[in-house]
Amino acid sequence: MGVTEVERKPQPVASVSSVSSSIPKQSEVQAVYGKPGPAVENQLVMINFPFSFRIDWNLRQRTKRIRVHKLAAPQLEKALNEVFNHYGEEKWRELGIDRFAGSYNHRKMRGGNKWSMYAYGCAVDFYAGPNGLRTRCPDALFCKPDYKAFLDIMEANQWLPALRLWGADGMHFQRARLG
Ligand SMILES: [Zn+2]
Fold it and tell me: Fewest 10 Å CB contacts: which of 77, 90, 93, 141?
């Protein structure tokens, strides 16, 4: 499972230019999404997609459902439908963008005592293997040109790629800004 993000300081990266102020900062997620635990769990919703993702750690298993916070779900639903429609199913699977690697998880960040973005229901991972925690461009798979549209569509729908937030952990997307 994609249990990978670590505690880190904000680090402005110019490529995230279209970030809306309606996306909470990481320091604001508790006020927006709730306190990790029941307050967040009560606000989780299941997105149902008209196509199935493969489970990244067990590719014979599939799911059509991804569970995230209700305030982040409409954006993710729109983003992933747009991604699927942009590539078409065959290319989408060939590129491994269909490899769902985790969403809501009640846990702390690695290397710290803060709650993970997963504990707020505002983070997802895809295709963990070649998009590791410390893998930066150009080595991470999602840095390759074929994936630019995927990252663009996610970002345009407020789900920010970690590759563009802190330049590593390519599998990771979150509806939270740094800071
Ligand atoms: Zn992640």
Answer: 90
Q: Is residue 2 very low, low, confident or very high in pLDDT (cuts 50, 70, 90)?
A: very low
Beta strands per DSSP E along the chain: 44-55, 58-69, 99-100, 123-125, 160-161, 172-174
Strand, helix or coil at 6?
Answer: strand
For 65, the token pair is 């459902």
Q: What is the Cα Rg of the chain in Å?
A: 15
Q: Which domains does the chain have, with CATH numbers?
A: 26-174 (3.30.1380)
DSSP, collapsed to helix, strand or coil, labels residue 41 as helix
Whether this prediction's pTM lies above 0.85 is answered by yes
In the reported structure, the alpha carbon of residue 159 is separated from the centroid of ligand 1 by a whole-number distance in angstroms of 12
For ligand 1, the distance from its centroid to the CA atom of residue 51, given in whole angstroms, is: 22
pLDDT (tens digit, 9 = 90+) per residue, 12-60? 444 444 444 599 999 999 999 999 999 999 999 999 999 999 999 999 9
